[in-house]
């Protein structure tokens, strides 16, 4: 099956199994650079990657809201406890401010206990709308249903949860989160000429990352079938602590591995360049998904190879757009297109702050909403 730019949003079911235990290792002869892929496979992966090296221009939504959007609504955000979710809160507030809505962020560490406590607070305060990110609905399903019964509109990002009567809208769900994994693998194969094994650094506690891993593994299987792809699973409790040491320890023990994919760029990549340098690992190629400001500085200084720019602005504005449509009494759009972009030092717009994937995302949404 050919991978296409629109595979995720079309919901293509890719079910090719990748069995790590029988994967043939690149460089099994002991050559650190491993076996090269065929010229045809390199041409194919580079053709697949070419569109994603260019900055996208389309936001997830297209249809203007043709009824008045009520002002004065109160919106609450429940994040996932990582630095990337804190970035999301800041962007959501920019969108809610434009609509004249109040906004608050319930900080938590992403553990089930804290997430459940956040939902208990929702039921006490009864805001008009709730946005949550990257947390498992199974933890708070009862509270979510109670919120819906109370008339609270709920939308979400970055979750395997499916929309229903209680959860009205989801963006960057399972199907939409497959493509970034493809792009990370495609970039590593492209830039390494198919040399060197790869490792995927996972946080399996976040179920939404599973499609990323599948996209990564299946793309390696397709274009670099002789390459071994291994997995390191990082527990949530290790985030912000010893993640770089875990990755460096693995790379020292596996010298054929030259390519690293980070499932959560900002959370897993913090401190990694310094740790690699201190260990003398100067030939490691790293790409992640979902950069934070540290990631951008690493790329700008040449300490990290690339990142897939998670559409923070586009996904957060799309959730506010969904709430606006619900409050205005207009239908939600059937399809949300997720823009993906592989950014390197040469194409990085700025290293000082998180930037939109679509340059004029705010202006496009304000036009849909009829605000300045």
TrEMBL record:
Residues 1-25 form the signal peptide. Keywords: Signal. It is found in: Cell envelope. SUPFAM superfamilies: Periplasmic binding protein-like I (SSF53822). Transmembrane segments: none annotated. The keyword Secreted does not apply. InterPro entries: Bact_Solute-Bind_Prot2, Peripla_BP_I, SBP_2_dom. Pfam families: Peripla_BP_4 (PF13407). Its main location: other. Residues 92-329 form the Periplasmic binding protein domain. This is Periplasmic binding protein domain-containing protein. It comes from Nocardioides humi.
């Amino acid at each position: 099956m050919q991978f296409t730019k629109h595979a995720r949003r079309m919901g293509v079911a890719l079910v090719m199994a990748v069995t790590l235990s029988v994967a043939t290792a690149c460089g099994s002869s002991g050559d650190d650079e491993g076996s090269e892929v065929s010229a045809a496979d390199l041409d194919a992966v580079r053709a697949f990657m070419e569109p994603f090296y260019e900055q996208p221009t389309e936001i997830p939504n297209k249809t203007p809201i043709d009824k008045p959007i009520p002002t004065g609504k109160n919106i609450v955000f429940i994040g996932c406890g990582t630095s990337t979710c804190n970035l999301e809160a800041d962007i959501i507030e920019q969108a809610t401010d434009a609509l004249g809505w109040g906004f608050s962020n319930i900080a938590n560490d992403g553990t089930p206990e804290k997430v459940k406590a956040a939902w208990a607070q929702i039921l006490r305060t009864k805001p008009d709308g709730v946005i949550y990110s990257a947390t498992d609905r199974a933890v708070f399903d009862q509270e979510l249903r109670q919120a819906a019964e109370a008339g609270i509109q709920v939308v979400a990002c970055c979750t395997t949860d499916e929309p229903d009567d209680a959860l009205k809208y989801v963006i960057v769900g399972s199907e939409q989160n497959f493509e970034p994994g493809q792009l990370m693998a495609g970039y590593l194969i492209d830039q390494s000429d198919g040399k060197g094994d790869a490792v995927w650094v996972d946080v399996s506690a976040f179920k939404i990352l599973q499609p990323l891993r599948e996209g990564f593994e299946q793309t390696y299987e397709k274009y670099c079938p002789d390459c071994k792809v291994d997995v390191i699973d990082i527990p949530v409790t290790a985030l912000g602590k010893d993640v770089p040491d875990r990755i460096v320890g693995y790379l020292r023990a596996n010298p054929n591995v030259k390519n690293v994919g980070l499932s959560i760029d900002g959370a897993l990549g913090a401190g990694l360049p310094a740790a690699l340098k201190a260990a003398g690992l100067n030939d490691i190629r790293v790409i992640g998904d979902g950069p934070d400001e540290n990631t951008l500085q690493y790329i700008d200084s040449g300490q990290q190879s690339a990142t897939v720019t998670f559409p923070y602005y586009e996904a957060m504005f799309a959730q506010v757009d969904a709430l606006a449509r619900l409050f205005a009494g207009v239908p939600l759009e059937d399809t949300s297109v997720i823009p993906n972009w592989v950014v390197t030092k040469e194409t990085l717009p700025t290293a000082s702050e998180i930037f939109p994937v679509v340059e004029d995302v705010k202006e496009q949404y304000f036009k849909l909403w009829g605000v300045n």
